[in-house]
């Protein structure tokens, strides 16, 4: 736990935004960018749907505009319009562009034709063969109904009403997934993308977190990808992925990973440790208290195996930080999707101690999230 203090009359200068509160230079351009921010998301989705990164990757190097055009899954392509699309994707830093001019058989130089390669972001996150591929995540959050959710932000301010996602889908997100196995599978794949990054950091940087643990259950464990990574890093730990019945029924059987069906609001399988990876931010405080109490019940009693622990992987907001933008964006995302929230350290302390735990500690890791250990 950390503590901070301030002199009573001191004034804390908190950066209000990433653009500079007092700087209005270029303000018109910024407002235009805000207004058209959806363009970046949709253009990115278009690049994925056309398989542009995979085409360039399979080509083995920079690909000419004409070759790229011939390999797109479209009946016909306007070269000028494709050039404009690629120009914007290059501007976004996803691809690179180099000019190339060859010669014909008589030595007459051709008109220069742009050739496109993979930028660092495109190579790392948009090629489906990449271990860090984020294609499923992009597709899940840029789907038409998912984009429609953002049109109901103001309705999210009304207490007790439907969430923006309920207004967009007509049902809750959980009901939508329960009735639509394909959409549920797509969402699980999207979450697996995010899980790979945070789980890699967890097992690489937090070996002490798993010291003395013989069994662990991942609540909301989806397809078991997180438990598989933990099992490979710590083979002595018995790993269980726990989720709703329709999720478990659709999940593949992974070697060494047990699957358990149930409802975390009712009971959680017993284990030395319970993992909650990006679960609590889905819920309001009252529901989080219920979940944390069920987790506490699943742990061994104090004095028998040390009482166990709950390992929480979540954002920890810090209003004094200059690097809070992504966390604040995720807070808005949770507001409109599920009515949940991202939390500050003070809010985590209140929640954990309020659920009857004796203490906690927060450890930043190289992922955007932090590791929060709660002790019964």
From TrEMBL:
It comes from the Eukaryota. CDD domains: AdoMet_MTases (cd02440). It holds the Pfam family Dimerisation. The keyword Protein transport does not apply. GO terms for biological process: methylation. The keyword Acyltransferase does not apply. GO terms for molecular function: O-methyltransferase activity; protein dimerization activity. Residues 150-358 form the O-methyltransferase C-terminal domain. Residues 32-127 form the O-methyltransferase dimerisation domain. Keywords: Methyltransferase, S-adenosyl-L-methionine, Transferase. The active site is at 281 (proton acceptor). This is O-methyltransferase. It comes from Aristolochia fimbriata.
């Amino acid at each position: 736990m950390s503590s901070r203090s301030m002199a009573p009359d001191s004034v804390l200068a908190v950066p209000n935004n990433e653009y500079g509160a007092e700087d209005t230079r270029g303000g018109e351009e910024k407002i235009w960018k805000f207004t058209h921010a959806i363009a970046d998301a949709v253009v990115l989705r278009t690049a994925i749907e056309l398989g542009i990164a995979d085409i360039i990757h399979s080509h083995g190097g920079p690909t000419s505009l004409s070759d790229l055009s011939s390999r797109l899954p479209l009946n016909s392509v306007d070269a000028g319009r494709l050039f404009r699309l690629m120009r914007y994707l290059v501007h976004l830093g996803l691809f690179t562009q180099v000019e190339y001019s060859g010669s014909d058989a008589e030595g007459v130089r051709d008109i220069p034709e742009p050739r496109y390669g993979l930028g660092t972001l495109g190579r790392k996150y948009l090629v489906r063969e990449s271990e860090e591929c984020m294609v499923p995540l992009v597709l899940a959050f840029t789907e038409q109904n998912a984009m429609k959710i953002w049109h109901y932000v103001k309705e999210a301010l009304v207490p007790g009403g439907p969430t923006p996602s309920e207004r967009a889908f007509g049902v809750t997100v959980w009901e939508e997934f329960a009735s639509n196995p394909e959409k549920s599978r797509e969402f699980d794949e999207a979450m697996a993308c995010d899980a790979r990054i945070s789980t890699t950091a967890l097992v690489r940087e937090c070996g002490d977190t798993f010291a003395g643990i013989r069994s662990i259950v991942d609540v909301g464990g989806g397809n078991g990808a997180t438990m598989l990574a933990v099992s490979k890093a710590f083979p002595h730990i018995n790993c269980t992925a726990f989720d709703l019945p329709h999720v478990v029924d659709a999940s593949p059987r992974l070697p060494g990973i047990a699957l358990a069906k149930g409802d975390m609001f009712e009971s959680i399988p017993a284990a030395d440790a319970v993992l909650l990876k990006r679960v609590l931010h889905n819920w309001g405080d009252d529901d989080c208290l219920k979940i944390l109490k069920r987790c506490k019940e699943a742990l061994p009693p104090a004095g028998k195996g040390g009482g166990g622990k709950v390992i929480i992987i979540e954002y920890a907001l810090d209003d004094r930080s200059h690097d809070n933008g992504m966390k604040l964006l995720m807070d808005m995302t949770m507001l409109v999707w599920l009515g949940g929230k991202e939390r500050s350290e003070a809010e985590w302390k209140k929640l954990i101690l309020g659920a009857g735990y004796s203490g906690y500690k927060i450890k930043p890791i190289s992922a955007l999230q932090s590791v929060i250990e709660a002790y019964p």
